[in-house]
Amino acid sequence: MAVRGKLIEQANERGPSLVDSAYAALKQAIRDSVFAPGYQASAGELALRLGVSRTPVHEAALRLQEEGLVRILPKRGILICALAPHDIAEIYEVLIAIEAGAAELSAKLSEPARIALADDLDRETDGMARALAAGDLTAWGRADEAFHRLLVERCGNGRFARIIQTVNDQSHRARMLTLRLRPRLPSSEEEHRATSDAIRHGLSGLAREAARRHRIRARDELLPLIESVGLRHM
């Protein structure tokens, strides 16, 4: 009976809900830099800090390794992967291409769908403005991320959302690490509204160009900033 109970306990520990919870908790900690780039720890230590058990953390790390967020080092633990400036440049190339396409597709949706999406995009931009006025840069970063996530998820191309997910996690980490260094945060709000207005009115070419210009401007601001402060890894 004791052996059977042990097997049930082990099976439950490997259940999807525990692994999913450990995956979500570890991923969020990486995204928010609770576990900084270059941080290395055993699965047991990470489990203790996250308040979960060791086995789900190990299985979650296998998934995160496939996404490029961690590396599992045999007999040495789990390493939180760092991003170098060239990684950020590559990430922005993906963001520019996919989000420009998503904005164009969004402007071709039916009128009710376009208006509903534009309203939701404006809501997140309003949240950015409120957060910036209150000096809450963490809330600003989350609203900014929500805007970009909505743009891709609601454009009608499900593959866009799946392709962009990994780089979104990595770009969010770079965003949160550099927010206090960036001088032109209000520009993002203006550019977001240009994108949502074009979508609202069904102007697909303008929507594509507005989304593209926004990400190009952010990239061209962020990369020299990283270089100027000597950040080699994020």
Instruction: Describe the main β-sheet briefly.
Output: 3 strands, antiparallel
* Beta-strand percent range: under 5%
SSE sequence, one letter per element: HHEHHEEHHHHHH
Number of structural units classed as domains: 2
Shape: globular
Distance between the termini: 50 Å
CATH evolutionary superfamily of the largest domain: GntR ligand-binding domain-like
Helix content: over 70%
Report the top-level CATH class of the largest domain. Mainly Alpha
Structural class: mainly alpha
Q: Taking strands numbered 1, 2, ... along the chain, how are they ordered across the largest sheet? A: 1-3-2
Instruction: Give the integer mean of the pLDDT values.
Output: 85
Rounded to the nearest angstrom, the radius of gyration is 20 Å
**How many helical elements?**
10
Gross CATH architecture of the largest domain: Up-down Bundle
**Unreliable residue runs:** 1-15
Please name the CATH topology of the largest domain. Four Helix Bundle (Hemerythrin (Met), subunit A)
Total strand count, please? 3
